[in-house]
Specification:
It is built from 9 helices and 9 strands. It has about 300 residues and is an alpha+beta fold. The strands form 3 sheets. A 5-stranded mixed beta sheet has the order 4-6-7-9-8, covered by helices on one side. A two-stranded antiparallel ribbon has the order 1-2. The chain has a two-stranded antiparallel ribbon with strand order 3-5. The longest helix has about 60 residues.
């Protein structure tokens, strides 16, 4: 005896609820008294179409609410992140005006100039990240390819970030195979390396950071390793997403864009980026690239 007879159903129709994103379910209609007719089937299909439309609208509504919530959260974070260096820059400029009005120690004047410069650079990076979101989303992230030495670029980025490394007391160890010639976008790779080294400083807890670069059979490999807080296995799957982070922005700040932008750049250059990490034992970010990228 079949299940329909056990339920007292004489005839059953099964209509899939097919949305543009796949099958959302199955509409089951049955009768305990008679065999379903062609008219019944036509009605069932029409009913299923309306049900599918309602389900898809509910999904779109939920996604729209989530997108609005994400946008509002991001705008709040972005406003805070932009305000911080802007406020520091304004205070620094006010102090410079006072210091320059009266003769004093030129060392103090240089200190405030350096402070304003750092905050201006930070503000520029934040604005650049926001512009890159628009470029990437519209598929218009520009690439200017040129022949260059990747090892020399790593040394340049490390030297530029030296004062920040000293400030957070993170010793930097470079293990570079030199030269590492190739054809890439210099400014975009600078952006990737700056993001990765910046993350290592932010989450490294004042411990040693190692940056290595070497040739591989497929091209080149750059690795940035820290001994900081680490990333859980659950968070590793999402940290390369837009506006994502593995920690609270209240404690560490940031727009949650650096790794997402880095992945887009590396992918556009024909490579890939990955992370290996254990909570409490640090993280290792690896970028692998082909040597010669074509236009």
């Amino acid at each position: 005896m079949g299940p329909c007879h056990l339920l007292g159903v004489h005839s059953v129709m099964l209509i899939p609820l097919t949305t543009p994103h796949g099958v959302a379910g199955v509409l089951v209609l049955g009768s305990p008294e008679r065999v379903c007719t062609e008219d019944d089937f036509t009605f069932a299909k029409e009913y299923a179409a309306h049900a599918t439309y309602a389900i898809d609208n509910a999904r779109l509504y939920r996604e729209a609410r989530e997108a609005i919530s994400l946008r509002d959260e991001f705008l709040g974070i972005a406003g805070h992140e932009l305000r911080t260096p802007l406020t520091a820059l304004q205070l620094g400029l006010q102090r410079l005006i006072r210091e320059s009005a009266t003769p004093g120690d030129p060392t103090r004047l240089s200190k405030w100039v350096a402070t304003c410069q750092r905050q201006g650079e930070r503000l520029g990076r934040l604005v650049g990240d926001l512009l890159d979101v628009s470029r990437i989303t519209s598929g218009r992230l520009p690439m200017v390819l040129e022949e260059m030495d990747l090892s020399a670029l790593v040394e340049e980025v490390a030297a530029r970030m030296g004062p920040e490394l000293e400030k957070v007391r993170c010793p930097l160890v470079l293990k570079l195979q030199s030269p590492l010639p190739g054809r890439w976008d210099r400014s975009r790779l600078d952006q990737v390396l700056t993001n990765l080294l910046g993350n290592a400083m932010k989450y490294g807890q004042g411990r040693s950071i190692e940056v290595s670069a070497m040739a591989t059979p497929e091209g080149v490999c750059v690795r940035v390793r820290d001994e900081g807080i680490g990333i859980s296995s659950e968070d590793q799957a999402r940290i390369f997403g837009r506006f994502e982070r593995a920690v609270s922005e209240r404690h560490y700040g940031g727009l949650g864009l650096g790794l997402w932008i880095s992945r887009q750049i590396v992918t556009q250059l024909g490579g890939h980026i990955r992370v290996e990490s254990t909570q409490g034992q640090g993280s290792s970010f690896t970028v692998e690239l082909p040597r010669w990228v074509e236009d």
